[in-house]
Specification:
With about 525 residues, this protein is an alpha+beta fold. The chain has two domains: about 230 residues, D-Maltodextrin-Binding Protein, domain 2 (3-Layer(aba) Sandwich); about 220 residues, Dipeptide-binding Protein, Domain 3 (Dipeptide-binding Protein, domain 3). The protein is about 30% helix and about 25% strand. The protein contains 16 helices and 20 strands.
Length: about 525
């Protein structure tokens, strides 16, 4: 989760914040002339705190981009609405070879892109080839195990793997592999492509005024007759939490995202609006920079772990909507080790560890914080109070989005609050961010995992037996706990609120919007 991008290694270490700077600009939509939203029909307005900034599925990063893709693109398979299974999407069915390395997908016939052109074998081949050739891409790990893709005709896609892997179907559900129009990319080029692809999904990009609003309109060539129900969906930027809530209550917005938990609680008694807490894979934790002179000592990190009361933070911040956790892996995953308890304060042991490390007199740390995030601010203040009990003076360094991201990628921090939500129904993506140092420097811990942990992760990536995978990921999660580079806090639902006359709002645990039936 997590912004415009050049490549995985550079962007994930240099990512600008999700907000957009510079002058506002209107963007002509892919394949259609620029137009304002129609007055008639079903028009849904969704308020969100920040705008998208890159709608190229291969080079993008950030949930603010990712969550939109399911409305525009469709792949061979998809996750179920409840996130528990993989279902057919544009493939009716598939066969798997005896050795588990070759998947033959049988694609629906008569598919068309939103501009009315036919989906061809060339489009499928190009979609896969581009994703696989972009080795520095953010999502390359999802295609890294693919040896080759062959598309003998418009109705068949054959994926051959380097090694059999249990994560194959989950990886193939990644938004990046939603089939896209090669001819449109060839026409507009890579820079313009960041303004949105042409796909087969229920909607297409209509207009985009950067930093203000992104409007999607109904795909009249959509394969499901009578869907979607909405004619347009406008994602409007309303940065201030209070303003977003007021606009929802006044009816200027139909849906508000990223609603503070206290507001969700208050809306439960509102006559016109209601909280809509959708189950998610969202997990929050504290990250410690192991290059800090004090935090390089694992016993000092353990002391901070023992000075943290995750349940107190969860209760104070989430107003009962969240659950304290002991792992950075989402509890919704079958591979999450739920037996690891959430961090609970043991102040005496924490003080003893700090005393043994020669820090009994206390020391200073600085927590890097993106300004404007009320939830993170509250977590920071609670940590500040908790750690003060063992003599740690936690300073809070708030920076605006761009400066925050710049400091984060340079490692100019001691402590940071991290959040993660899965994009695929498998732990391999999160583990790449932790284990592949070139991606996010050990998820901003600046800690390179030792060989034994790397070996466990490599084994878990390719293991096809579910029970054996569970044991491998159990060992990994226990290993991460014992390194004390992360202090897990809590998991939360998606923080949405809707007008009571709105129906069909679906956000899957992976964050994907499913708006075929969204209406009012």
């Amino acid at each position: 989760m997590s912004q415009s991008i050049l490549d995985r290694r550079s962007f994930l270490k240099t990512a600008a914040a999700l907000g957009i700077g510079g002058a506002l600009a209107s963007v002509v939509t892919p394949g259609t002339p620029f137009a304002l939203a129609d007055d008639g029909g079903v028009n849904i307005v969704i308020g969100r705190p920040v705008d998208s900034d890159n709608l190229d599925p291969v080079t993008c990063i950030g949930n603010v981009n990712i969550f939109v893709f399911n409305l525009i693109l469709q792949g061979l398979v998809k996750t179920s609405d409840d996130g528990s299974d993989i279902e057919p999407d544009l493939a009716d069915s598939w066969d798997v070879s005896d050795d588990g390395k070759t998947y033959t997908f049988h694609v629906k016939s008569g598919l068309k892109f939103s501009d009315g052109s036919d989906v061809t074998a060339e489009d499928w081949q190009w979609t896969f080839d581009r994703a696989m050739q972009y080795t520095d891409g953010n999502w390359y790990s999802t295609v890294e195990n693919i040896d080759k893709v062959e598309v003998p005709d418009d109705a068949t896609v054959v994926v051959t793997l380097k090694e059999a892997a249990a994560s194959t179907l989950a990886n193939l559900s990644i938004f990046m592999l939603g089939v896209q129009s090669k001819s449109y990319y060839d026409k507009v080029g890579s820079d313009e492509y960041m303004n949105g692809p042409i796909g087969t999904g229920p909607f297409k990009v209509k207009s985009w005024e950067k930093g203000v609003s992104l409007t999607l309109e109904k795909n009249t060539n959509y394969r499901t007759q009578g869907k979607p129900l909405a004619d347009t969906i406008e994602f409007r930027v309303v940065a201030d939490d209070d303003s977003r809530t007021l606009q929802l209550q006044s009816g200027d917005l139909d849906v508000a995202t990223d609603v503070p938990f206290v507001t969700m609680q208050q809306l439960e008694s509102d006559a016109n609006c209601q909280a809509h807490p959708d189950p998610s894979t969202m997990v929050y934790w504290v990250g410690l920079n192991t290059t800090n002179e004090h935090l390089s000592d694992p016993n000092v990190r353990k002391a901070l772990y023992l000075a943290t009361d995750a349940q107190q933070i969860c209760d104070s911040v989430t107003y009962g909507y969240g659950t304290a956790v002991g792992s950075i892996m989402a509890p919704t995953s079958q591979y999450c080790d739920k037996d690891i308890p959430a961090p609970a304060a043991d102040l005496d042991q924490a003080k003893q560890l700090l005393s043994d490390a020669g820090l009994g007199g206390g020391f200073d740390l600085t927590l890097l914080l993106r300004s404007g995030n009320a939830q993170y601010e509250e977590v920071a203040m609670l940590l500040q109070a908790q750690w003060a009990q063992v003599g740690v003076n936690l300073n809070i360094d708030q920076r605006e989005s761009t400066a925050y991201s710049d400091a984060r990628k340079k490692g100019e921090l001691d402590v940071i609050i991290n959040g993660w939500s899965d994009d695929i129904q498998d732990p391999t993506q999160l583990m790449q961010f932790v284990f592949d140092y070139s991606v996010t420097s050990g998820y901003y811990s600046f800690y390179e995992q030792p060989d034994d942990m790397q070996k466990l992760n490599s084994q878990a990536t390719i293991e096809t037996d579910v029970e054996k995978r569970k044991d491998l990921y159990r060992q990994i999660q226990e290993g991460l706990r014992d390194e004390y580079i992360f202090i897990p806090l809590y998991t939360t639902p998606w923080q949405n609120a809707i007008r009571r006359n709105v129906s069909g709002f679906v956000q899957t645990p992976l964050g994907n919007y499913r708006f075929e039936d969204l209406t009012k």
